[in-house]
Amino acid sequence: MKRIYLTQRVEQIESIGERRDALSQEWAELAEACGFLPIPLPNRLPTVRRLLEELPPDGILLTGGNNLASCGGDAPERDQVERYLIERSLADRIPLLGVCRGAQMLISYFGTPLQRVEGHVRVEHPLSNGGTVNSFHSWGARECRPPLTDLAWSADGVLEAVRHRDCSWIWGVMYHPERYHPFRAQDIEFMKEALQL
Prior knowledge:
Elements: E1 2-6, E2 9-13, E3 18-22, H1 26-34, E4 36-40, H2 45-54, E5 59-62, H3 76-92, E6 96-99, H4 101-109, E7 115-116, E8 121-126, E9 132-136, E10 139-140, E11 148-153, E12 159-164, E13 170-173, H5 185-194
Parallel strand pairs: 1-4, 1-5, 5-6, 6-13
Antiparallel strand pairs: 2-3, 7-10, 8-9, 11-12, 12-13
């Protein structure tokens, strides 16, 4: 079974002054449906570096949650880990899929600016490619710069899906496949394709 590393959101527990890494249990359920072994990564770069050296992954999933620090987010350690994972994906041809915040990280990493968007939180909307997806983000892009190529847009002009033009193993989508219950067959097939399962 292929090992897929998943990034986690950072949560600040004010009552006890603790920062925690967290991952929705829905990801474990979706991993089972797709047939891969999910391995959550801590938001600590030295540990992640060692993990990738000692236990190389078959794929990487940048999950949702937390705004990027450049968009007012308060989890710079997560940004650091995810930038490193993108670099490793590029260097080692590791399949990588960014979901929501993960797609925003890819879009930003490759030079397309992000901006606040309205009407994209807790809604379902159609895409230019004929699909329909859920939406839980307040940041997005209204253009797509190389080396990314656009795969789908929302009706109000927000970039919804991308793929790297030269590194075809890198994908990003702005919706949350793990939040559909039951999981959609097309999402399972897409994740299998993107993560080369």
